[in-house]
């Protein structure tokens, strides 16, 4: 049984496989360039070649067919999107909505369509995008070659530490900011990615092809790449330095050559006998075309989001969406009251609190957590004491409190030293009357100056080691009253819950210490759980507000409904005005191979 999909306009689909250079099996592998260059369709003044149509099918349709979708339904759903690209470019060239600019990159002269690009550095961005995609694919093949000799562990990526406090100058996005965020033109980011490869001042097809492989075994960039890959060789923990194996520079360079040859063969086999240079040239040409369609699409998106009528339409649809979701949540909690308990204790970044049933008002509270973790050595000591005395023993708990007074906090806002380490804060806690409490320190002074939740959030950004408290949408939720006997209403460790309730009892802005097996927690009472406020008119661009999160969450879907209506009208107008024609003799064989009907009323 084959599946069917419905036709839907969406954001422009790719015309070529720009980001994946390691080609798979294609539905068409005709090597007759003469056939590929023939006209399949005319869209206004734009010519759609048989080759462009084949490549679109290979790139965008094959995946659906492999999943078992019906080919006619896939054709009917995706072809309007394919044609829409050409409609957009034809409209753009007919009535260019921006002044022509001269591209800063000389490669523009080789690609005539680049004269219509919106920004002067677009061609540079396109060339670097194609280069980066090619080199990443080659890197993957190099690892495959090296892995045949020594097993490599997955590369570790340093996660960016999420912040709770948004800088004042970044708090409010500009009008249309979400649309602008969808638009990728980060040349600096590409430069950072490409910095590990040999410098390329020319940035041409030839220089891209010739710039990947290292030629000197002492090249600092090669030695850096070699060191990183050698660090990833899988080893036993007890492997001594003398027993450690490593790749040599020569082996790395040999793997690069093998990867290059492998990709060259793959392109030749799957892309009509092309050379790698021909393939890259085609990728650049296709990316220029896609960029034109994308930039023209942005004109409509920006209009939808920033112009008066478009703004009101977006806002009205957002309010309608909000009211529907709020009504659904209210009805759900009315019919199933205890569902609120499950909901409020499992909030995530995608949750929204539209309502709090009356019986649950002030029953749950938000608390912030600043955790200063025990070191690995301290945890080892605690594990030993736990095994010998038991974790509930007075001996174990006394040792844990003692270690708490020796704990060190990491200052994540400090400058790293020459070893790449942040500064440490010591002598933070002491024991008074049998309880761990604050010693005189920078942290104690900072806590005494806290006057609002944002102040405490800033301290979390500076000292916290609890990943769950970094950049989370919601604080931790604690039941205000002691949980039931079964403990089903409170999932936190006992010490954390007790400290939370003690802070809640003292009122908003209060904080308490909790010592657990993780380390020392400073728990801050933010507020009781309440229904969130959604001020779309004023807050939809203010990060950290419920209105902004809602706007960001449903923005694409809401915007797409408006955009689809606009695109549908343009698409229909090209058919109504006979601006689309088909060269039946050139695509007859292709459609026969596919087993589909065109079904267009021309």
Ends apart, CA distance between termini:
32 Å
Order of strands across the widest beta sheet? Answer: 8-3-10-9
The number of distinct β-strands equals 11
Instruction: Specify the helix fraction band.
Output: 40-55%
Summarize the structure.
The chain contains 20 helices and 11 strands. The protein has helices at 33-36, 50-66, 71-94, 122-147, 177-181, 187-194, 205-210, 220-231, 249-270, 276-306, 308-335, 339-344, 376-389, 394-405, 442-448, 453-463, 494-506, 536-539, 546-576, 584-594, and strands spanning 39-43, 46-49, 364-373, 409-411, 423-425, 429-432, 435-438, 476-479, 511-516, 519-528, 580-582.
Could you name the key traits of this structure?
602 residues; 11 strands; single chain; 20 helices; alpha+beta; disordered N terminus; globular; 9% strand
How would you characterize the overall build of this protein?
By secondary structure, this protein is of the alpha+beta class. Among the domains are: 105-153 and 175-303, no CATH class; 362-529, no CATH class. The chain is built from 20 helices and eleven strands. Strands 8-3-10-9 form a four-stranded antiparallel β-sheet, sandwiched between helices. A three-stranded antiparallel β-sheet has the order 2-1-11. A two-stranded antiparallel sheet has the order 4-5. Strand 6 and strand 7 (435-438) form a beta hairpin. Helix 3 crosses helix 10, helix 10 (276-306) packs across helix 11 (308-335) and helix 10 crosses helix 19 (546-576). The longest helix is centred in the middle third of the chain and has 31 residues, at 276-306. The two termini are 32 Å apart.
